[in-house]
Structures are given as structure tokens and as C-alpha cells.
Amino acid sequence: MVGKKHLTSLSKSLGLISFLVIITLFLNACSSLSSDSYQDAVSIGISQIAEHPALDSARAGFLDALKEKGYEEGKNLKLDIQFAQGDIALTTTIAQNFVSQKKDLILAISTSSAQSAHNSAKDIPVLFTAVTDPVYAGLVKSPNSPEGNTTGTSDLSPIAKQLELGKTLIPSAGKVGVLYSTSEVNSELQVNMAKEAAKDLNMTVIEIPVTNTTEFEPALNAKIKDIDFLFLPTDNLVASNMPIISKIAMNNNKAIIATEQGMVEGGALACEGLDYYRLGHQTGIMAAEILEGKNIKDIPVSMLEETELIINEKAANQLGINIPEEMIKRATLVKGAE
Amino acid sequence: MLELTNISKTFNIGDINEERLFHKLSLKVNKGDFICILGSNGAGKSTLLNIISGKLGIDRGRIILNNSDITKETESLRCQKISRIFQDPALGTVPSMTIRENLSMALNKGKSFDFSFLVNKKNESLFNELLKVLDLGLEEKLDSVVSKLSGGQRQSLALIMSTLTDPNLLLLDEHTAALDPKTSEIVMGITSNIIVDKNLTALMVTHNIEHAIKYGNRLIMIHRGEVLIDVEGEEKNNLTKEKLLSLFKDVSDRSLFS
Amino acid sequence: MNDFILGILLQGFIFSIMVMGVYITFRLLNFADMSVDGTFTLGASVSAILITKGCNPFVALLFSVIAGSLAGTLTGILNVKLKIKDLLSGILVMLALYSINLRIMGRANLPMFNNETIFPDSSLVNSLFIALILALICAVIFIIFFKTKRGYLLKATGSNEGMVISLGLNTGTIKILGLALSNGLVALSGSVFAQYQGYSDINMGTGTMVIGLASIIMAHSILKNIKQIKPSFLCIIGAVLYRASISLSLKIGFNPSDLKLVSCIIVILALFLGGKESSFKLKNFQLTKEKRQAGDLSARAN
Fold it and tell me: What's the ipTM?
């Protein structure tokens, strides 16, 4: 008897909640329409696939560039920042919402966010950043002529440079372990590039694929002893799991060569890093140009020219690796987590 | 109609709990028999029904139904010829469906369940007739979902459904035990009528001695896996509760020493 | 604002096809089929690879349905023939599908931006129309199928398996049919969604099961008192409600990951409230009710 009453009241409250949800939906939708129209404000939607240091730096760089060009939040800029927390379907919802809110410009950080934005926002300029290969992802026809409403900056890491760095620091290295996520298309590309580059350096690549966070430990432990150093491509899953990766590598006395600063700070030895802040900044400049009237079709995809040598001194010491003087001179030294 | 020959069944073979329930049990059931099966708990009454219906396998022996050997047949295959009603009213019908839908399903037994529509207006009068006989007012509730019916109503419906396509054998497994005394009487009455009207062969396991005496043409008492008492015809008609109990005492005392 | 609502409806209709599939297994068959996360992506990947190779997008839909049905059949075979428990069968197939989907696409993410899909232009209204038609077609097929004898058999198998056995039938084949049908629908939904978002991605199926269950429970709790609502329409309404609550929460500023927690809670409630008729708690309640109503029965007879 009590059981049944409980069930009914539980269902009733669920029903009530859902009903309230719908009502608030309407009210909210109506209100946002009015608040959007304060004078001359540019509204920009930022869609980011997940939160982690590199992507966050890119966003910061983007916003700073806009500020430098005179667009500041609260004054003449209205920002809407949405994180999809890795959920693909959510990126479409976010993009859809931006379109329905008639944003003036969309910044999509990372490939899935960019693809969803590209597909949904046919009439709104879409800028991407932290996308490794925009052509492969279908975002642009070719880097020089985007031919659509989408362009941006690519974070394709100079893989050859990274492996060279590894070979310089560990001259005896013959086998490079490449750790990557099978779910990220950007990683596939980099693995293939690594294989090519390794050949030229008389090294071979041993692939260490993982599909989710829990697989890092077993996958690494299985292969760590066979490799001479570990290489980490720009990969969101890998970037989010630096602690376990650097722990296992350090326990086995293997150096990690990475592709971005966040990873080095997380325990990798060194990288020829792309400064994501600068990448985002470059994208911000593009945004300002578009807001000022430049046609997005006239803006080719760009990459960062220089890389920054980033070295984790503590890691070097722990591994007993001697870093040549001239390298230390031109490098940015970071402390690292452990 | 049904012949069990030298049935042996042991539970938990090789275990500490190994228990030999049936050893060379034989039983012959004639067409038209309505047998009441009595026995103490653990005597093997329900197990016997499970063995016949195929829910449980046997170690040795043969089961012949209507002249064909069904020993190796699966439960669902046997169910094409054998119908069964359980103690739990929830088991004999599909609770989420209406009476009409349940009856339609039962009516289709033995035929193909293909892509034609289940519910057919043509069957409406048949259903009405079938339910009127029960005198429970169910004919006015054809659209009711079965889960809303009482236990007695459900068992009655289950009885109709399981006998709709004239099974070779009807197994009743304490089917009134979960009902209150009044309802129990009503359902027993309905059971008896259906069996007699259709001249069905039935085995009824019951704890209710009055029912066992009142209904059926044959009475069996099982004790520790053995058929100790088997009376039919005149002898059964003249049975009283006292006679039955003293019979049981004699026989079980003897068996204690065997 | 109009676009906002249209977007919700559009996604709702697309997902409603998947919800119908989940309804068949979880609600009707009482089979916890965990493979749907994989089957959704399977539908997407099959269509994506075919479309990028030049196949007609509607034909691609058909192939996705077939692929999904095969996956469902596999789950069924694991459960029925190899006697692997339902949860585990689904999980095994879901795991296998991850690798299979990667192989089908040849890569983790396959864009269809330059190919013809069933959505000919980016007009929300046109897309909505197409999605609505597809959802309605599925709903109608759903309704018709469950009026047939085979459909009833499926419902009976989930409600009282013993009943089906007593009809002299093998429940195994019915379960496999149900799983094939369900996963065919889920794959269809995945295919449509991939064509809608313009690309297929190995991760797009994550959370499909939770979305499906949450949609069903939301609709069920609101529409409980409307007796004659058809299950397929319940699924459509539920899917739209779910998408609405997600979009709304994004607007308010909820963290999407909190949303997943809420969805999980809704699902736990779904499994608790929507259990089999013969589950423990409900069974005990039934017997008590019978004893009360037994009075009715005898009063009537007298």
C-alpha cells in the first residue's frame, strides 16, 4: 500500500519537474532574445569540446587578441562559452543553439566542435582552432582556399622536429613508442607522420593505442620496456591523462617527448611546442578581421611558424639525461608536476 | 493417455545433498481420468508434474503421452499437448494484456504466430460465451488488463485459456492454494465443470483433502517419491477424510520400516 | 527563438527512432540491451562510408538498418544459444562494435560535408519535416507490428515467458527477433543523426542507452494518466522532452556533465519503477490485493 503511494508521488514529481523544465524553457528563450539586443554588441559563441590546458590557453589567446582589437566582454562583446565535455551529440546541440541565437561568429575549439559548427552554421562565419588537419576533417577544401564559411588555425605539430628532438636527447634510441587514442582522427594522422619521420632517423615506431582512460596503465605497461622513448602526439585523451603516463614512464626510466607545453608540464621531458595561446591569439586576429568586414573565404588556414623548445628540467635530472648547453639556452624551462 | 515407466530422478548427484527422489516410479493414467494427487511436503508432487511437463529432466525411464514417447521432448514442445495451471495466478496469463488479448493468444495456440492481426472481431461472441459460463462477470471486462483482476478471476481465465484448444493432458499444480477459501471453491467448481464437459484427462496436485475426496475419479497419495495409495471408482467415491487418513497412517508406517 | 524550438524538435524526432528501439528491448522484452551505444554508431558509420563512396543516402539508411539488425541478432544469439546473461551479451557486442565501426569507417571520424545526405539543405524547417516523416513511418510500423500475432508474442515473452512456453513456442527465436528489430531502429536513428550532423564519429554513440531510457521515463511519468497513448508516440514525446531539457540546461548554464548525472538518476528510477509484473515487490503487492478483492468474487457468486 505504502509502496504504491510512493511510486505515484515519485512519478508525479518527475512529471512536475519535466513540466517546469518546459515552462522555463519558453521563458528563458523569450528573455534571451531581448537581452541579446543591447546596442552594437557583437555576440560570439565559443564551442569547446572539453576542458584541458592547451585548449583553454587557445581560448585565452583568442579572447586577448579580440580585446587588443577593441572587443571586450561587457562593453561591446557578448560571449557564450559552451563545453561539450567530450559528448559529440552535444557539440551539435551547442552549434544549433548558436545558430538559433544568430551569433555573429562562432569559435570552435577542436575537431568535433568544428565539424558540428561547420555543418550547422552555413550563414555564420566559423573559426576553428586546435584542429590538426582541417582538410581531412572536411572543414575546408584546401588550406589556401577554404571555400566555405569556415577557416581557422591548425595545430599540426611538426612531428619530424619532435622525433629529431628525441633522437638528439637520446642518441641511442631505435624504438619510439607512440601513445594515442584510437577515437581521435587527428592522432591517426600523426601516427602515420611519425612512422615516416622515424624512418628518416633510423628509428621504428611501436604503436600503443588506447580507447579510454582505464587502458593507459595496461597498454603502457605492456610495451614500455620495449621502447627507448615515448612520443605523445597532440591527442585530447592523452593530454588529459598525463599523470598516469608520466608515472609509468618515469618508473621505467623512459623519457617522454611530447607535442605541447601542457604535456611537458605534466611530466614529459621536452617538446618542440606549439604555443596554444599564440595559436588562439592568431585566430582572434582572424576573428577581428571578419568582424570588421573581411570575407571569411579570403582567409586561408594558418599554422604557427615557430615552435618553442620546452624542457622539463626535473624530468631530465630524474632520467639522468644531459641536455646540451645551447639547448638549455634557447629553451623555456618548466618545473613540471612531480 | 499418459504412461510413466520406471522414472528415476536424483537431485544433486555427487553432492553431500544428494537426494534420490524417484526410483523406478511407474504410473498409468487413462484417458478421461481426473486424478487428485496428495502427499506431504517434499513428497515429490510438484516434481512429478515438472517431470511430466518437461520443466525437469529425468535420469532414467520413459514418458509416453498419447502413444508417443515424449521423454526427450523440450518443455515448449510438450506444452503443445499438455496444459498447466500454476499456484501463482500471475503465471497463467499475460498480466500486461487485456482479457481479450489473452484469449486471442490462447485461441491461436497450435497455429502460426505470423504477421496477421491478433485480435479478430469474429472471435468476440466465442469469448463472450466462454466467459459467461464462469459466471464471474468477466464477459463485461474483455478490455480490462489482466493484472487488475483478482487471483480467482485470473485462475479462472487461465483455466479457460489452457483448455481452449483441448489439450491431451491438463496439469493443475495447487492452483487454488493461493486463493481464499470461498474463491477456492468457486474456481474448483469451474475446474471440475470444464474437465467434465470436455472430457479432459487431468492431474491435480492439492493440499486440500476435501477437494481430493470430492473431485475426480481417482486419488493418489505420494510419500517420499513413491505412490503409496491409488484408489479409483467406487472405492474413491466411498472415501471419507477419516478413511483416507487411516489409510495413510498404515501405509506410511509400513514404509518407515521398508 | 523559433529556431531554438525547431532544433529541439528536430533532434527529438531523430532520437525518437532510437527510443522506440530501446523501448522494445528494455520495456517490452525486459532485456537490458547494452549494445545500443555501439549500434547507434554502427548505423552512422555504415551510412557514412556508403555515402562518401557515392551511395544514395536513402539506400544507405537501409543498409544501416540491416547492419543494426545483424548486431541485434548477434546479441540475441549470445544470450539464447550461448546462454550468456543479457547484460553481458549486450556489453560484449558493444565492445566488438567499437573495433568494427573503426574498421568500417577506416578512421575515427568521417565527414560527409561534400556528399548528398537525406537532408538536402540546411533549412531547419525542411530537415524537421524529413525527420518527422521518418519518425512517423517508424511509429506506424511499430504500431502495426505490435498488433500482429508476432508482435503480441514479443510482448508476452517480456511479460510472462512461461506463458509463451505454455503456448508451445520457443522464446529464444522471439527474443532474437526483438533484438534485431530494436537494434535496426537504433542503427537507423544513428544513420539519420550522422547525416544530420554531417559526419560520423566513433564516439557519437556514447550515452545512447541513457538517453533512450531517460526519454522513456520522462514521457511515462508525464503521460501516465493518459491511458490510450500509443507507446511509439510516447517515445517521440519523450525524446523531444529529453532534448528540450538538455538544450534548456545548456542555456541556463548547467555543466553538461551534471546533466549526465541527472540522466543517470532518471534511468535508475526507470529501472526501478518499470520492472516486470512478476518482480518481487510488485508480486507481493498483487497477492495482498487479491485477498482483498476475493471478497468481490465470492459476493458476486452468492
Answer: 0.83
